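Is this the right way to post structure tokens for a design question? Let me know if I should format differently. Anyway, here goes:
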């Protein structure tokens, strides 16, 4: 059962993540614990598909907090990220005021620029504390936004407040738990990073990835799980345009299990490569001969480790 009390130690962070079926190493758990204890945003950087976004989800679920997700994209502005006014309702209010003979512009302006006409977006919602405690704010894929939006974030991350010209400054009574992710398609400004604790989320090693597979896809054959994890590890050593992440590993093991496979064979691997690799040049680099060679290497490695 979720508890909204923050973990009191690194071990408790590990337990919380494990309770949500998230397999993490102690270094990540330590950084997460410090971010929670110090009230600092956590900046997670790494390749796509390594589980950065999932950390915010399991943290919110494990703590029983509301999750607010701001999905970043090029051209993201304050109207989509912070707030905007409900213009259609404001126009109706103006027409009603005119029809009833209310002519005081100051009174009308005060009325239409009040809280009931304000549409709160994720950054503004994150400043509100509920009975369960401050929410978890996920700012996902910050590297997809423009640099001016990063500059706007500085006030939010430094002071946990937002300034609305018509109303004034709204400040959080309690800071939200902030998780920022980046796939490093471009560098994030140092001013943002300085306000955060930093952690690079790497691909898991084979033992941890096998643990994830067994946890997430327990119905898969044991030999198949080991071979898939070892095969994926070999793919990540190749010069591919897009290396497969943990999500692709899990999708592939589910696909092969749906095909009633209990171990890898060249034909099945070739037929299901679209689950693992998302670019034609990468798929084309793996012909049957290459696939057969990789499977042989995987099985030879397994024999040596026994």
């Amino acid at each position: 059962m979720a508890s909204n009390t923050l973990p009191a130690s690194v071990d408790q962070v590990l337990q919380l993540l494990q309770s949500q079926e998230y397999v993490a190493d102690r270094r990540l758990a330590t950084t997460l614990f410090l971010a929670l204890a110090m009230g600092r945003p956590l900046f997670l950087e790494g390749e796509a598909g390594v589980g950065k976004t999932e950390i915010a989800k399991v943290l919110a679920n494990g703590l029983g907090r509301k999750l607010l997700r701001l999905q970043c994209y090029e051209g993201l502005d304050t109207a989509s990220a912070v707030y905007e006014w409900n213009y259609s309702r404001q126009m109706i209010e103006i027409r009603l005021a005119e029809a009833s003979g209310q002519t005081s512009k100051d009174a009308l302006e005060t009325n239409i620029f009040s809280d009931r006409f304000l549409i709160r977006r994720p950054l503004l919602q994150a400043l509100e504390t509920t009975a369960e405690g401050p929410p978890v704010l996920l700012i996902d894929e910050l590297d997809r936004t423009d640099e001016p939006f990063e500059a706007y974030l500085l006030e939010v991350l430094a002071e946990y407040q937002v300034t609305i010209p018509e109303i004034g400054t709204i400040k959080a009574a309690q800071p939200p738990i902030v998780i920022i992710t980046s796939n490093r398609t471009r560098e994030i400004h140092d001013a943002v990073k300085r306000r955060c604790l930093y952690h690079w989320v790497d691909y898991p090693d084979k033992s941890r990835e096998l643990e994830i597979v067994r946890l997430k896809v327990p119905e898969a054959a044991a030999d198949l799980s080991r071979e898939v994890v070892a095969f994926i590890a070999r793919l990540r050593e190749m010069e591919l345009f897009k290396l497969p992440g943990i999500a692709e590993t899990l999708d592939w093991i589910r696909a092969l299990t749906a095909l009633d496979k209990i171990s890898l064979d060249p034909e099945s691997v070739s037929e299901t490569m679209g689950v693992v690799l998302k670019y034609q040049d990468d798929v084309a680099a793996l012909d049957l001969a290459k696939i057969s060679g990789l499977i042989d290497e995987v099985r030879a490695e397994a024999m040596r480790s026994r």
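Format looks fine. Someone answered above. Worth noting: The mean pLDDT is 92. The beta strands are 42-45, 67-71, 83-85, 118-120, 136-140, 161-164, 168-171, 177-182, 197-200.
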